[in-house]
Amino acid sequence: MKIKKVLIANRGEIAVRVMRTCKEMGIKTVAVYSDVDRTSMHVRYADEAVHIGPSPSNESYLVKSKIIEAAKRTGADAIHPGYGFLSENAEFAKMVRQAGIIFIGPSSHAISMMGDKIIARQTAIKCGVPVVPGTTDPVSNEQEVMRIAKEIGFPVIIKASAGGGGKGMRLVEDESQLANMLRMAKSEAMAAFGDDSVYVEKYITSPHHIEFQVLADQHGNVIHLCERECSIQRRHQKMVEETPSPIMTPELREEMGEAAVRLAKAVDYEGAGTVEFLVDENLNYYFLEMNTRLQVEHPVTEFVIGLDLVKEQIRIAAGEPLRFNQSDITQKGHSIECRISAEDPDNNFMPDPGLILHITEPTGFGVRTDSYVYKGFEIPIYYDPMIAKLIVWGTTRNDAIHRMIRALDEYKISGIKTTIPFLEKIMTAPDFVKGKYDTHFIQKNADYLKEREKVNPTTEDIAAIAAFYHHFLRVNKIQNIYIIEKTHDYWKNYGRRKNVIRI
Ligand code: ADP
User: Fold this and answer.
1) Which residues of the chain have pLDDT under 70?
2) Does 166 contact ligand 1 (Cβ within 6 A)?
3) Which end of the chain is more exposed for a tag (fewer CB within 10 A), N or C?
């Protein structure tokens, strides 16, 4: 292996996840960190760590020159960008390569072609991949947007060409909303991306978000690793992902997979990438965008296909050819991922960063936790509130759902609010269990998802109950009840006595 040391230009769970694979491959790792991340897990896990500046990401994780400097200083021969931050920044990829360092990802040309949603749409059209009906050029004035909207028919969706993370995207239900929504989309796009160009697409009313994982080496071999169903979304942001998709057929998988491979080939893609589609009720599919990096939800593919995607990324970046053909790729069983965020589901998902007082992560057969937090760690306010991903594998979809419910139940985090109770409700929602859902699932099931008993008492709750109980038993002499206070006595006495109260 020509790569001996990798710098991970990221933080959090994805930095740790990449380092784990490096360790298995005998590759040394370098972490970079901001002020507030001094005690972060990725810093502890790495072989070396370089401080790159203050906590705000635009002064640390987004400063290209500081990261490249850190790689040079530590003698790293490759940089893995993870997801988010600089992972889809064409200029960064170029600067890394110009510095004589391997960028674990595609060429800057492929990143910029797919990073601009309008160019991506034009490329898809050129290679015969269906796109959502709409404009193929940026639109600016209201009259033009109105003309196009009337042509394709309301509802339409206005999107930022530089878009991502659901920003600069506005649904327009009828003529009366158009001017306002156009203004909002443009100003949001300008604030988020420094570019206010937008385009218009037909709004697909009940779509599924289905994406295909592709792998392409430097020798012209491109394959796909089947689909991921990502329709469980909140404000256009994925929350739960699974594979296989409950609506997929073998014929559609083959057709969409081929379309994804065609698109990757059209931009001379290299590495791991994801082609996203919307699929309507009649199983018509439309290209949405391509993400030129590893996705948050990649572990569901790893479970079902049986490949470590980071390992494949590193091998490809080192110039090695793919070791398998399309016909070698088969799906086994079913996998589901839940994104665990430090957010309060009872308070409109407000971020709830803070100190982790206690944490117990689930384990056992078919359970994987990709996390970066630990007891005593304070979740910083500066970054994404996602703290972990819980991924399960099961022989069938039903097994995977039951395993996820069990694993979520075992997951105990106290000190902060998390999305765990909300995710538990999703797993038991009849529409989810039946696999009958689209991107509006959370909205449609809002009442069901809101009705939550407190299924997950926090450690503080348990401590308060135990203290009260202890006090109660001391004060009241209860006959025939033996209070066992010492753990080692408990097991012995449990077998001998009937009326034992477990404290
Ligand atoms: P971003 O890059 O900002 O995440 P995407 O284009 O990937 O935006 O879309 C994110 C989500 O928004 C999709 O998964 C889907 O739920 C919704 N969406 C986007 N375009 C459409 C459309 N034309 N019709 C219906 N829903 C859409």
Assistant:
1) 453-461, 468-503
2) yes
3) N
Instruction: Find the 236 Cα to ligand 1 centroid distance in Å.
Output: 6
- Candidates 208, 231, 236, 274: which one to mutate for ligand 1, based on the most atoms within 8 Å of Cβ? 236
Q: How far is the CA of 220 from the centre of ligand 1 (A)?
A: 30
Tens-digit pLDDT profile for residues 200-232: 999 999 999 999 999 999 999 999 999 999 999
The finding on whether 279 has its CB within 6 A of some atom of ligand 1 is: no
Shortest-distance Cα residue to atom 22 of ligand 1: 203
From 88, 169, 275, 291, give the residue whose CB has the most ligand 1 atoms within 8 Å, as the site to mutate: 169
pLDDT of 459 reads 62
Q: Which amino acid is at 236?
A: H
What is residue 500's predicted lDDT score, i.e. its pLDDT?
45
Give the per-residue pLDDT at 166. Answer: 81
Q: What is the DSSP string of 460-495?
A: HHHHHHHHHHHHHHHHS--TT-EE--SHHHHHHHHH
The alpha carbon of 164 and the centre of ligand 1 are apart by a number of angstroms equal to 9
- Note the pTM of the prediction, 2 decimals: 0.90
Q: What pLDDT, on a 0 to 100 scale, did the predictor assign at position 456?
A: 55
In terms of CATH architecture, what is 333-453? 2-Layer Sandwich (3.30)
CA R_g for the chain: 25
Q: Topology of 133-202 in CATH? A: Dna Ligase; domain 1 (3.30.1490)
Among all residues, which ones are annotated catalytic? 293
Domain 5-104 has CATH 3.30.930.10: no
- Reported as half-sphere exposure (CB side, CA atoms, 13 A), residue 88 has a value of 23
CA–CA gap between residue 55 and residue 37 (Å, rounded): 8
pLDDT value for 283 = 97
Q: How far apart are CA 311 and CA 320, in angstroms?
A: 11
Measured between its terminal Cα atoms, the distance across the chain in Å is 55
Q: What is the pLDDT of residues 105-126, one digit of tens each?
A: 999 999 999 988 899 999 999 9
Fold match, 5-104 / 206-332: no
Could you tell me how many residues make up the chain?
A: 503
189 Cβ below 6 A of ligand 1 = no
- Tell me if the domain spanning 206-332 has CATH number 3.30.470.20: yes
The answer to whether 213 and 301 are in contact (CB under 8 A) is: yes
Among protein residues, the one whose CA lies closest to atom 10 of ligand 1:
236
Which pLDDT does position 452 carry in this prediction? Answer: 78
